[in-house]
Amino acid sequence: MKKLFLSCLSIALLGGIAIAGGHEKGTLSAVKSKGHIQCGVSQGLPGFSNPDDQGNWSGLDVDFCRAMSAAVFGDADKVKYTPLSARARFEALRSGEIDVLARNTTWTMQRDATLGLEFVGVNYYDGQGFMVRKTLGVNSAMELDGASACTNTGTTTELNLTDFFRANGMQFELVAFERADEVVAAYDAGRCDVYTTDRSGLAAQRTKLSNPNDHKVLPEIISKEPLGPVVRQDDPQWADLARWTLNAMINAEEMGIDSSNVDSKRSDSNPAVKRLMGTEGDLHEAIGVNNDWAYNIVKQVGNYGEVYERHVGANTPLQLGRGGTVNDLWTNGGLIYAPPVR
Amino acid sequence: MAGRAATTSVLNNSKFRAILYQLIMASLLIYLGWSIAENTIANMEARDIRAGFGFLDETAGFSIMMSLVPYEPGDTYGRVFLVGLLNTLLVAGIGVVFATMVGFLVGIMRLSQNWVVSRLATIYVEIFRNVPLLLQILFWYTAVLKPLPGPRQVFERNTEIYFGISNRGITVPEFIFLENFSFTTWTALLGILFTIGIHRWAKQRQATTGEQFPVFFAGLGLTIGLPILVFLLSGAPVEFTPAKMGRFNLAGGITIIPEFLAVLLSLVLYTASFIAEIVRAGIQAVNYGQTEASRALGLRNGTTLKLVIIPQALRIIIPPMTSQYLNLTKNTSLAAAIAYPDLVATFAGTALNQNGQALETLAITMTVYLSLSLLTSALMNWFNSRVKLVER
Ligand SMILES: N[C@@H](CCC(=O)N[C@@H](CS)C(=O)NCC(=O)O)C(=O)O
């Protein structure tokens, strides 16, 4: 951790210098000239950003970065990943060490308004939950008075937890670790009665416990955690590119365009589809990419629904069924909604 | 004289030139630092990044698991700073004391004539100074946590627990000193003063008459025995409130958290392995002739060690010891790995992340470590000058 601290420090100092020097040219041209996008991800959160044995990253957040790469380079694989702790992530983005942060990061006013950063949308609507051992016999978070809770430091989780216990006049002990692995290990070793984080995170980390079936998630959701990608505020074009990458994935799903039928959709006569596929109009120029940008995204990465089902959906270890939840398309009663491409 | 002054301008005076160069260098540095700071702040403002130290008065909003002063989530970031600083000082302070004791012990053991004892000491040193500290911390944390049972396994609900050990820590009763306790405090203070006086008097007496006085035992009686007696006579004026088992944990009492134990243990064992080598080297550096000479004068082994060897060894031991103390203090920042709420974990960690003011927070934190280091060095230098042999 001293290393981490030191690297935080040097990043902060570099940040100071970078801030002093300013980003002369835009992020897009810098990305094009270095030939890849540097994408900030977690240190390993199954479903969102997780490396396999060979070090290949995959997940919902990873696919967002791959989609940006497909839009910029016409090739989804031109991404390099920087694993970041919750604590180090914003400094890494501010200092220019990464180009975009896609790391299950909650959009809050403080982060948006005071850090010089910009959230470009929401790719997963989440909320904070609790996991306990079944043997405790606890059925509700309201029964947790006096418990010890393990969580990650530098997260919204710490604050929500404190708020929740204070609001309900309950006592607790907060044990906050820097790395998610350490949280899981400590909870597994019995250091804490409760493991608390975003519910998607609970589902993911549960798979790492020695006996996942000995644990259960309590029904309460104590916060709103809209997770989304973040960029620097000083580069509106790059922010637009990131925002419309996400919007393109959502619009594609809404229009019924997926990776298997996208080729035929290129000759579709529907004007909205034509605009998204780039066969009509020249909006792509404003965000600095080629007219087949959205085609490449859907072809190589998929639409939002495909990506969701691939990484966190009902048929994944996370088993986060989508139907009827806030993460369904707005046309199905959910919150996934994107402004039109026109 | 006047003629020489005319040919040697003040610029050729080496003292004057030295001071001039220092001044130029210092003002250049100050200017550089100042312009970097100003530039950064201006640029941060232009980019909508909040700057300044106003955040220290804002509400922190998160809880901290261990605090030596009262702390509530509704307190400010400034308070978080204090809590973290005290937690750092606590492990560092206790760590330095124990590391010194263990280090001296092992260092002397390494010089033992007994093969087993010296081998054991060697093995200890080789293991603990060669395994990275972070690994040792993680190891001890697991080693402390894993074998200990959960509180629900050992304590029955609603019972009062006077001494409890579980994987949530070691719990003892909370104690409050009643009014009459002041008798004990005063006795102890007077005892210390008297002991100092007796020590001086005995030294002088020995210098003039050669007669000795058992200062150690007298001091022991005055500083410990007498206060205990007064404590008992005044009716043992302490009130104990034991912890009580709740649904999950013990409530009340004073709990030493396992994170603290693991950090302390690893820092002590790690640093002691270096101190042991310093002590061994220091003692070996004293020429054996000194021992022989001392024996020839008829001094016993213990006296030889105390009056001849150690004073000479100390002047070799103390300077490198200072860097060990500095290392230990700085290494406490590794505690963040296992959730021990030190300055780095709370203030430069959680707080930094919640308010995002990295530059300011890290500047404060670095200043603290720098000041701590300078303070330690200053103290050790003072001590060094006290024990230094007066050279002729
Ligand atoms: N959404 C929250 C929490 C994010 C967070 O860090 N969650 C943890 C636990 S699920 C995590 O991602 N850990 C993975 C890692 O540390 O790399 C935030 O933005 O503050």
Topology diagram in text:
The complex is a heterodimer of chains A (342) and B (392).
Chain A lengths: L1 H20 L5 H8 L2 E5 L8 E2 L5 E2 L1 H14 L5 E5 L5 H6 L5 E2 L7 H6 L2 E3 L4 E3 L1 E6 L13 E6 L3 H12 L4 E6 L2 H9 L5 E5 H8 L8 E3 L7 E3 L2 E3 L3 H19 L7 H4 L5 H7 L15 H8 L3 H8 L31
Parallel strand pairs in A: 1-4, 1-5, 9-10, 9-11
Antiparallel strand pairs in A: 2-3, 6-14, 7-13, 8-11, 8-12
Chain B lengths: L1 H6 L6 H33 L30 H34 L4 H16 L2 H13 L5 H4 L5 E2 L2 E3 L2 E4 L1 E4 L3 H29 L5 H19 L4 E4 L1 E3 L4 E2 L2 E3 L1 H27 L3 H9 L4 H31 L11 H13 L2 H30 L5
Antiparallel strand pairs in B: 1-6, 2-3, 3-8, 4-5, 6-7
Helix pairs in contact in B: 3-4, 3-9, 3-12, 4-9, 5-9, 7-8, 9-11, 10-11, 11-13, 12-13
The complex binds glutathione (GSH).
The site of glutathione has 21 residues of chain A, from helix 6, strand 11, helix 8 and strand 13.
Folded structure, characterized:
The complex is a heterodimer of chains A (342) and B (392). Chain A has helices at 2-21, 27-34, 60-73, 89-94, 109-114, 156-167, 180-188, 199-206, 236-254, 262-265, 271-277, 293-300, 304-311; strands at 37-41, 50-51, 57-58, 79-83, 100-101, 117-119, 124-126, 128-133, 147-152, 172-177, 194-198, 215-217, 225-227, 230-232. Chain A folds into two domains: 21-125 and 227-332, D-Maltodextrin-Binding Protein, domain 2, CATH 3.40.190; 128-223, Periplasmic binding protein-like II (D-Maltodextrin-Binding Protein, domain 2, 3-Layer(aba) Sandwich), CATH 3.40.190.10. In chain A, strand 9 (147-152), helix 6 and strand 10 form a beta-alpha-beta unit. Helix content of chain A is 38%, strand content 16%. Chain A is built from 13 helices and 14 strands. Chain A is globular. Chain A has 342 residues and is α/β, with parallel strands linked by helices. In chain A, the strands form five sheets. In chain A, strands 10-9-11-8-12 form a five-stranded mixed beta sheet, sandwiched between helices. A three-stranded parallel beta sheet of chain A has the order 4-1-5. Chain B is mainly alpha-helical. Among the domains of chain B are: 77-139 and 258-384, MetI-like fold (Orthogonal Bundle); 177-238. Chain B is built from 13 helices and eight strands. In chain B, the strands form three sheets. Chain B has a three-stranded antiparallel beta sheet, with no helix packed on it. In chain B, strand 6 (243-245) and strand 7 (250-251) form a beta hairpin. In chain B, helix 5 (133-145) crosses helix 9 (258-284) and helix 11 packs antiparallel against helix 13 (358-387). The chains are: A alpha/beta (342), B mainly alpha (392). At the A-B interface, helix 1, helix 4, helix 5, helix 6 and strand 10 of A face helix 2, helix 5, helix 12 and helix 13 of B. The structure holds glutathione.
